[in-house]
């Protein structure tokens, strides 16, 4: 009984992770945009001094200080979240590669497109009970390959 309850809980977490797959991908883009926005551009100037070939110089100590401060907290937090989301997406992609075509189709329709079990039965040509059995098989396989990812999220 306790094992069944733990398995149900693990499956629910896994299903939630899969349902958010597209959100993780969008999150990566949005977080990167935020990071790009808060990072001020470094303005360089080309200064030729007599007797030299020229060097690039950063214009402002204040600008360098501001960049360091931003990097210290907010930018690092954004980068960490981007890295976690990229890892989650990469792990899901790798786990899906291990599934056969029917299993992959099930995941894409059920979790990425939000289809119901009844819709899946009609689309895939299975009885609803067979779709439910396929779900359990898929979740069992994915729970092994994505077990570490569940701890990240």
Instruction: Give start-end ranges of low-pLDDT stretches.
Output: none
Tell me roughly what share of residues is in helical segments: over 70%
Specify the overall morphology: elongated
How big a fraction of the residues is strand? 5-15%
Task: Count all strands and give the number.
Answer: 2
The CATH architecture name reads Orthogonal Bundle
| Tally of DSSP helical segments | 7
Terminus-to-terminus distance: 26 Å
- What is the overall pLDDT average? 85
Strand order of the largest sheet: 1-2
CATH topology: Arc Repressor Mutant, subunit A
Largest sheet: 2 strands, antiparallel
Strand and helix order? HHEEHHHHH
Rg calc: 24 Å
Structural class: mainly alpha
Q: Please, how many domains?
A: 1
CATH class category: Mainly Alpha
CATH superfamily: Winged helix-like DNA-binding domain superfamily/Winged helix DNA-binding domain
Domain RNA polymerase sigma factor 70 region 4 type: 91-134
Organism: Siminovitchia thermophila
Pfam families: Sigma70_r4_2
Protein name: RinA family phage transcriptional activator
Written account of the structure:
It comes from Siminovitchia thermophila. This is RinA family phage transcriptional activator. The protein has a single domain, classed as Arc Repressor Mutant, subunit A (Orthogonal Bundle), CATH 1.10.10. The protein is built from 7 helices and 2 strands, in the order H-H-E-E-H-H-H-H-H. Strands 1-2 form a two-stranded antiparallel ribbon. Strand 1 and strand 2 form a beta hairpin. The longest helix has 37 residues. The protein is elongated and about 75 Å long.
């Amino acid at each position: 009984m306790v094992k069944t309850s733990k398995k149900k809980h693990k499956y629910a977490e896994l299903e939630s992770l899969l349902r958010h797959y597209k959100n993780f991908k969008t999150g990566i883009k949005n977080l990167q945009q935020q990071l790009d926005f808060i990072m001020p551009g470094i303005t360089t100037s080309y200064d030729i001094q007599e007797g030299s070939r020229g060097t690039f110089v950063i214009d402002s100590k204040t600008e360098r200080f501001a960049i360091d401060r931003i990097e210290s907290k907010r930018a690092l937090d954004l980068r960490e979240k981007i890295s976690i989301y990229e890892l989650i997406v990469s792990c899901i992609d790798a786990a899906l590669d291990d599934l056969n075509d029917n299993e992959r189709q099930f995941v894409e329709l059920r979790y990425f497109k939000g289809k119901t079990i009844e819709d899946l039965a009609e689309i895939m040509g299975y009885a609803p009970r067979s779709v439910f059995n396929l779900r359990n098989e898929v979740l069992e396989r994915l729970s092994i390959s994505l077990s570490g990812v569940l701890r990240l999220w």
